[in-house]
User: What shape does this take?
Amino acid sequence: MSQDPTANFKQVNHSVTKVDARQLALGKPSYVADFAPADALVVKMLWSPHPHARIQSIDVSDAEKMPGVKAVLWHGNVPRIAHCTAGQGFPEPSPYDTFMFDTKVRFVGDRVAAVAAETEEQALAALARIKVKYEILQPVLSIDEAMADGAPVIHDEPEAHVPIPIPYEPKKNLVARVGCEAGDFEKGLKEADFAFDDTYETPYAQHCPIEPYVSLAQIDSAGRIVITTSTQVPFHCRRIVAQTLGIPVQKIRVIKPRIGGGFGSKQEILLEDIVAMFALRTGRPCFWQFTREENFRTGRTRHPIRVRIRAGVKKDGTITAIGMDCWNNTGAYGGHGLTVVSCCGSKVLPLYRCENIHFLGKVYYTNLPVGGAYRGFGATQAFFGMESTVDKMAEAIGMDPLKFRQLNHIKSGEGSPVFAALGEGKEGVPMTVGSCALGECIVKGAEAIGWKNRADWRRKSGRYRRGIGMAALMQGSSIPHIDMGGASIKINEDGSFNLLVGATDLGTGSDTVLAQIAAEELATTTDKMIVYSSDTDMTPFDVGAYASSTTYLSGEAARKAAADAKRQILHTGAEMLNLPEDQVVCKDAHVQSRDGQHKVSYSDIACYSLYSKNQYQIIGTASHITQKSPPPFAAHFAEIEVDTWTGNIKVLKYVSTIDCGTAVNPALCEGQTEGGTLNGISYALTEQYLFRNGRMTNASFTDYHIFSMRDKPPIQAIIVPSYEETGPFGAKSVSEICINGPAPVFGNAIYNATGARLNEFPFTPEKVLKAIQAVKR
Amino acid sequence: MKLCEFIRPASLPAARDNLRELGAKGMILAGGTALHFMQDHTPVTAVDITRLGLSFIKHEGAFYNIGATTPLADIQRYRAPRWAMHEICRRISTHQIRNISTLGGNICRVFPWADLPVVLLAMDARMVIYSGKETEFPADEYFKTQPAKRFLGGDILTSVKVPALQAHHGFGSIKVVRTEASFAMVTIAARLELDGANIKSARVAAGSAIPFPRRLPSVEAALVGREAATAVFQEAAGKAGADAPWRGREGMSPDYSRHLAEVSILDALERAATFARGRAE
Assistant: This one.
């Protein structure tokens, strides 16, 4: 083997064309809405206008008589089954605090009643005829209000509970609590030459996928419910819909076609139970698509989190203590609340070597929009505080913040007590870092941004001031001992393969990546793979697309399934060549003798195995769980220009380096890196939820500002390879980490430009201006 | 607004007749982008005026005459000596929208965030309205109240006459946005007439951070007769607070809106002065 383990790869580490590129480029029917039959009933929902209220009465009789109306659902005519909408492993580390419909509404945008009608206009007209009488309750509109003694109880229903033994006190609005200690944190603080205690606030945000939430349910000829839906978690979706409707899993089939983006938002089951229930009630196809406004109000959001960082550092750069306390506002329902706050600690604290660590995370209900999974969750929020404080520590001891990070960041072969302490609803898994190219990421990023030219803010003057900031980052790859991915692969007569995976390509390109991995293992080409994902009737189980798991976890399942098929191919090929199995190898879609003198093609092997002798189906199948969650690493840098008269920030250049192990498809990897980075830039600079009495006032793309390509600053993505021995062909993950950088990078760059330190974002011009005006030179 | 019928008259008089007959049920259709913001469900008949020869830009003596159905993209692309209208048009929305959105559509019904009324106020433009015969209305009169009221009787805006800037005239506009395609946080436009180093006349207008576009008389008064210099511009910009009810938008406080407007006025005046002194095109 050469020194570079990827040198001989023919499929992996090559930028092959996405397997679904042609159908998407040609606009072929691919997405859920493309499959809605003309006679599908249209579903519309009456949403709560109040943040906190009890439904005293509801009269749907007029609505039921309206033209075109086929069914109306409300709390009086559906099963009352407590469940959780978060698509997580089972049993979920989230409270069962949700019902299909309830007698109480807990945020503006909560469900009240739904109508299925022949047309959208008829459905909307019927909604207007539903009479609801509310008893208005005092709303809880901030996490401080939620934590206060005597705060209104948001979940006072007796059924609310957690399915696993984790702290849950709904009478105190407490959704979850998690913590860990290592060494002696207080002692570490005392040993420090400099101590820091800063509190940071991170805001709400929406994922804004181009395709909104959308679902279609139909009853097939066998009487089963077929749900075609835009989901990241088809198998969790099947389980949760079965639970919510009180019917067996056997009665439900979930199909995930192509997805127009998810970013975590579609890890929730928000529509599927309703379309399924309507389909059962009416026998008709039922179609429901959120408007953009509904996506903002009712769709899931990024949890706003308050992060307090306490830390100590010695003059020589040794970090003596790191403490992180997090208060997570999960909104009206608790899905993902615990896991998000756990990730604040587990994905951030291990980055820097420190013996004395404290972590405590608490999650509270409020009557605000509901938090959920969102790319990078927990880490995105906590890295803002952590990397801001790291810069402060470096400045206090007079060290270049880049060198301070180089001195302290975790390296290959090192572990952290946090890995073992923090898992998902239970303890984590002890782990040492295998591959780590963070050092090289820092060096290459620094060179690309021109770090050596970075000057202290005190030397800058004038209206427009430039600053350079950086952040070091890590994430994970899958949830060890919890996530499972499966794949099967069978050969066809022409030497092509059907690769069936439960993993969920939501526009990320994972179908292509898994095909490349299988093709590499089978010594054939990626274009020979016919990938099908995902269908609960047809494909093996997979937990779905989240936790940066698909390439690392499902990729290894695909590789193992391919290896299983390869073993059978070698067996049959050897039989056909009349050679011992140990004398043949797979190469270029052939089985051949070691000297290459005799060979037989995969096509001939398939035909032989299917039609000629000792017939059988060559089919490999495998599943995979992970024993560790190897972190991808990244170093982000930006140069910005601050208008000190208005507070406006212009991003002049952004450098996003990434160590994702082997980049299975470098072009897709760069795409993920640029996309995630731009997503983070937008979150840091312009995205914000504005509220009046708990109601979001800017629920449209007119008023909620996300960056488009017109706003994209120059972004340089630099892939820095490493080789993760536990991953498929050396791969780790890439999708989430990139969003974690911009907020701390800009915070540090603003400081470098002006001396103003902001502890909350988005960095709106007004906030930046105020901070600049407060700087004393 | 719910479009139920569509008619395409063959001439301007026919279009006016159609609109008069339809009354409140008639709706002029040019680019159609403004309909997005008129989301009631009143049934209307669209009267398409896009084929009546109203899409043009002509240099006519002391004016540039711009047809009412001229797409913003055409105004953005047009070039002529001391032409200034392209500057704001390239900042309005996206390429795709500018290809269909028209000058008339932007000023016949003025939304608070509209940029063109601000520019036309500063430029002292004249709106030409057909009511059986063509009549010119100066911008000050036209934008005194919501112009949509003028068109209820079936009259039609046919063109806008923008004064061609003279050698000693200068123009500058500033549009502050959160993202490139978003509506302005504040829009400022300024036209200066210089007499040597001094300001002979000034027109300064604002929009977006106030309820309706308007000129800023205190700012203008603080400029006239004084030297075209940064300190003077700064002092004049500081008068903006008294001229308009600045309001908070998009999470910004009213104080910040006013501050942003003052900085933008200063920037617009600097641009206008540079233009007047003879800038590189």
